[in-house]
Amino acid sequence: MSQSGQPNGEKRPTTVARKSDRELVVTRAFDSPASAVFEAWTRPELFRLWWAPKSMGATLSACEIDARTGGGYRITFGEGADSATFFGKYLEVTPPSRLVWTNEESADAPVTTVTFEDDGERTLLMMSELYPSADPVADAVAGMQAMSAEQFAQLDELLASRRPPA
């Protein structure tokens, strides 16, 4: 990791900032159109290729995504007693520009909003996590910086591998 919290050699910086005492915002640009980035967030076969940070040694043993307003998701890291499952429902799905979902695995879990701002062949992604109280936010900042930087670098690699040759 570099001092900025970015994996060494990462092409695009991932920034994490507190927007308020209850909200964190993660920002990252990708060299792919919004439709491709949105698809990587909503198709389980693509999502499972980039979501689990490789440095953690965890893999997604299950990944169910019903990306429609009112649909749900269920993601499981690991196997057996060492597994952790995250789940919730989609409050808003507006392809290819916006996703809003609940995180229902704990009472302190945030509501997540991801926007995909299309700029031709580039996308500015903003992910906001709004927590029910300020308590979990301070603990989330450092972990979010490290994890999201690695996840988004992996997403960048996936998107690059899916681009047509120049």
Description:
This protein has 166 residues and is of the alpha+beta class. The chain has a domain at 15-42 and 92-162: START domain (Alpha-D-Glucose-1,6-Bisphosphate, Chain A, domain 4). The protein has three helices and eight strands; from the N terminus they run ββααββββββα. It has an eight-stranded antiparallel sheet, with helices on one face. Strand 5 (84-94) and strand 6 form a beta hairpin. Helix 1 (34-42) crosses helix 2 (44-50). The radius of gyration is 15 Å and the shape is globular. The protein starts with 14 loop residues before the first strand and ends with a helix.
CATH topology call of the domain at 15-42 and 92-162: Alpha-D-Glucose-1,6-Bisphosphate, Chain A, domain 4
Judged by helices, strands and strand pairing, the structural class is alpha+beta
List the uncertain runs: 1-9
**Beta-strand proportion:** 25-35%
Q: What is the helix/strand order? A: EEHHEEEEEEH
Total of DSSP H or I helical runs spanning 4+ residues: 3
Overall helicity? 25-40%
What's the overall average pLDDT, rounded?
A: 89
Largest sheet: 8 strands, antiparallel
CATH-level-4 superfamily name of the domain at 15-42 and 92-162: START domain
CATH class of the domain at 15-42 and 92-162: Alpha Beta
| N-to-C CA distance | 31 Å
Strand order of the largest sheet: 1-2-8-7-6-5-4-3
Give me the count of strands: 8
Shape: globular
CATH architecture of the domain at 15-42 and 92-162: 2-Layer Sandwich
Radius of gyration: 15 Å
